[in-house]
Amino acid sequence: MIARSEIETAVAELGAPPYRARQVYRALTRGLAVDFEEMTVLPRALRASLAARLTASALAPVEHWRSPAGDTEKALFATRDGHGVEAVLLRYPRRATVCVSSQVGCAVGCPFCSSGRLGFTRQLSAEEMMDQVLYWARLLRAEGRRVTNVVFMGMGEPLLNTDETLRACSLLNDPEGFALAARALSISTVGVVPGIDRLRREAPQVNLAVSLHAATDDLRDRLVPLNRRFGLDVVFAACARHVRATRRKLFFEWVVLPGVNDGDEQVAAAASRLRRPLYHLNLIPFNEAGGGFRAPTRDEVESLRRRFVAAGVRCTVRRSPGGEIEAACGQLALRRLGR
Ligand code: SF4
């Protein structure tokens, strides 16, 4: 979508009254308009003049996939400067969750993740993140449904793009616009401590999820290279500050990599940190995406869950859908447009 400041500037330069800018913003975020032609609340001449100056969307949809079961869909978009960005829709009986990318590629370089293996290209703006949500919101509206949750868990590390991610949260949450409750938003981080601290101060209602994946620094240094900068002690200190201030549940994620992070030593080390009120661990079965790791069997995941529970950790297995369309966690690989 267009930045609000750009809308205001264009409206002012065209000599239209300022309330027209508000109408454009509402038509984009509430009315889910794709272009100015749809904004029938505006005079025809103003619509045409705005269309000549601005493009309503910052992203252009390129391709759309649906999983055979129909519960997961993925869209590939092109940014105006020609990069590929992917977003996923997860359909549940009563919910529709959009998984948003926050960067083109990712600098963290987790070896089990397709985005990480491709490296970092650039930050996405809040408007580019909004456009991913608006795309799915339009599709769902045609079915009489709406987006109920947004998770910043797609390509990129959202808290290495904190300004724009928090701005996207405000846009999604804006009661004048898209009006999605802050509690319906979740940010997933590998543990960028300054970002966690900002989230606590600036958006305490937004859910926080920390991708842990290992509970000893030596293993986590390998699986989540940013651990060398923000080690387990400082990450957990930030988590404790977060829970103390927000009194909200804090989620931890653990991608299950058989033979790598499912040993008893890891379970014991994780349990000593996770046996706390409001801490909850989600196990995510790894989806075969290369990198020299293999996907766990159902029994391996269940065995790990049971060992965590026996060690006193609140732990569940999270559905990781969409493997067939490479939409599952860690599989949002960049694609070369026009290939
Ligand atoms: S798992 Fe997340 S932080 Fe790690 S490389 Fe992939 S996108 Fe980046």
Structural account:
The structure is a single chain. The protein is an alpha/beta fold. It folds into 2 domains: 4-53, DNA polymerase, domain 1 (Orthogonal Bundle); 59-325, Alpha-Beta Barrel (TIM Barrel). The protein is 35% helix and 19% strand. The protein is built from 11 helices and 12 strands. It has helices spanning 4-13, 19-29, 44-53, 114-118, 126-141, 162-173, 193-202, 217-223, 232-246, 264-274, 298-310, and strands at 59-66, 72-79, 84-91, 96-99, 103-105, 120-123, 149-152, 185-189, 207-211, 250-256, 279-285, 315-317. Strands 1-2-3-4-7-8-9-10-11-12 form a 10-stranded mixed beta sheet. A hairpin with a 4-residue loop joins strand 3 and strand 4 (96-99). Helix 5 (126-141) runs parallel beside helix 6 (162-173) and helix 7 packs parallel to helix 9 (232-246). It is elongated, with a radius of gyration of 21 Å. It starts with a helix and ends in a 22-residue tail after the last strand. The protein binds iron/sulfur cluster.
